[in-house]
Design brief:
four-stranded parallel β-sheet, alpha/beta, Rossmann fold, binds zinc ion, 2 domains
Length: about 300
């Protein structure tokens, strides 16, 4: 009787005993899905990626659910956008996760804004309500920064998991070669459209527009994070009259009512476009940039 019970327990012990060795994948948690998509391209089967922000959510504002804390508790590496993008919700989650490795300054913490040349750091309006007080944090949809992110993430993966360093380096080489090739092709398509004037709902497009050679003319939001009022939009319509604004760009998580009025009054085309991997049927980082180039050159 005793013996039989012991034998019944054996397979369970075997599985439990085996699991730490079998779990080879590095647990990478990212705020926005784009960092995870890039880490996945580089790390392949060596990484297991979880993004806290859904591609359909405003990354500035997130409901900090306890399930997100659990993912952070188990994480080997945390990739954040920094520049205060996640200032409203991530610090409390990270504190609650009780995981020393992923605290700011920990070996499993990477602030991805340290990998790119930040824009609008000096031009900030620190007046109440501006949610870009540390510079503009929407840098990942510029593929030049995609390349820099890939390089920095590769270095970090190699530091945390040196056994697979050569694989990460190879993953980076493949990703970088493909991205450089695509960037050259995208630039050929963008070149005839250089100087295209664009208004945005939120000031989340400046890095992309800079790379594309487009001109950011204004935003519907009077300040980043302050919802547009009809009066401000009316002023903007007057201000841009005669400037040939071709597009009004915005993410799907913003309302379109005032945007549509702006488009109707100015002749600009309203384009609701993805800025994160997974939005609008995109699956990869390449898909997102391809969609932006396609929609803004057609
Ligand atoms: Zn923003």
């Amino acid at each position: 009787m005793r013996m039989r019970r012991y034998l019944a327990i054996l397979p369970f012990l075997f599985v439990v005993g085996l699991s730490p060795a079998a779990r080879a994948a590095l647990r990478v948690v990212t705020s926005i899905p784009d960092f995870g998509a890039i880490a996945g391209e580089i790390g392949g089967g060596h990484v297991e990626v979880t993004a806290l922000v859904k591609p359909t959510q405003d990354p500035h504002f997130l409901d900090a659910k306890p399930s997100l804390e659990l993912a952070l508790n188990r994480a080997d590496l945390l990739l954040v956008a920094g520049m205060e993008l996640e200032a409203g919700w991530l610090p409390a989650l990270v504190a609650g996760a009780r995981n020393a490795a992923i605290q700011r300054g920990g070996k499993g913490y990477l602030d991805c804004s340290t990998l790119i040349p930040p824009m609008e750091v000096m031009a900030v309006d620190r007046a109440k309500g501006d949610i870009h007080p540390g510079g503009n944090p929407h840098y990942w949809i510029d593929p030049r920064n995609g390349l820099r992110l890939a390089q920095g993430i590769t270095k970090k993966l190699g530091e945390i998991d040196p056994d697979h360093g050569a694989d990460y380096a190879a993953g980076y080489a493949r990703f970088a070669a493909r991205l450089k090739d695509r960037m050259a092709k995208w630039q050929l398509r963008l070149a005839p459209q250089r100087g295209t004037r664009v208004v945005a709902y939120h000031r989340s497009w400046i890095y992309f527009l800079d790379w594309a050679g487009f001109v950011a003319v204004g935003e519907l939001e009077p300040k980043p994070g302050i919802p547009p009022k009809a009066s401000h939009v009316a002023e903007l319509i007057t201000a841009v009259r005669g400037q040939n604004v071709k597009y009004l760009v915005q993410e799907a998580f913003y309302p379109t009512q005032l945007s549509q009025i702006f488009a109707d009054k100015t002749g600009a085309k309203l384009k609701v476009l993805p800025t994160m991997v997974g939005a609008a049927g995109t699956h990869t980082y390449f898909d997102v940039i391809e969609r932006l180039v396609e929609e803004l050159t057609s």
